[in-house]
Amino acid sequence: MNKKEIIIEKARDLFTTYGYKKVSMDEIAREANVTKKTIYSYFKDKDSMFLYFINEELEKIKTELEKNKNDDLPFIEIVASDIYHILLLRKNSLLISNISKEVNSKNATGCEKFLKSYDNSIMDYIEKKIKTEINAKRIKKCDAHLISFSIYKVFLSIMFEYDGEIDEESYKRNYYI
Asked: Helical H runs in 19-110?
């Protein structure tokens, strides 16, 4: 492994274990056995390094969605299935779970923007799907931004706040009655 790969691996482990706020560039340098100057040759600062990992999580989502792509289904089924998979990946991501916990704690400084960036990327994805369907005249014209926000927040609440068991089929079936 080259130095950059080692830095990325060690930083990912530290951020996943301890969250954003508790990890310092000194700790990353120590774990990776490099100087901070070496880290700064690859990443502008701690924020840009952490954003790298957020983008990595988003790439995992894109890859998963491409694997499950089925354009023959009705739009609402596609969206419901996609969001379910996105939220399942989010729920199972230790990094994103730690960010969420940090945001909910008193030490949230810095984490909100990363979680917001993550959520905004997902809502942008949904909004693009809605606009594509509007342009193809498969759904009526609407405020795609508002609808994407609404859909995502409803699914987010169900996935993380609903107190019952949810399996994918009943989730999708009940969402678009």
From this structure: 25-32, 36-42, 46-67, 75-92, 94-104
Identity at 43, one-letter amino acid code? F
Gap between the Cα atoms of 47 and 30, Å rounded? 18
Give the tokens for residue 53: 């990992």
Query: Tokens 């354009």 sit at which residue?
Result: 71
Nearest-5° Cα angle at 45, 43 to 46? 105
Q: Tell me the per-residue pLDDT of 103-118, one tens digit each, with 9 for 90 and over.
A: 776 655 667 778 888 8
Pairs from 109-118 (Cβ < 8 Å, separation ≥ 24)? 109/21, 110/20, 110/21, 110/47, 111/19, 111/20, 111/21, 114/20, 114/50, 114/51, 114/54, 117/51, 117/54, 118/54, 118/57, 118/58, 118/90
14-72 pLDDT tens trace = 988 888 888 999 999 999 999 999 999 999 999 899 889 888 888 888 887 777 777 77
CB contact at 8 A, 155 and 79:
no
Torsion of CA 62, 164, 160, 107, to 10 degrees: -150
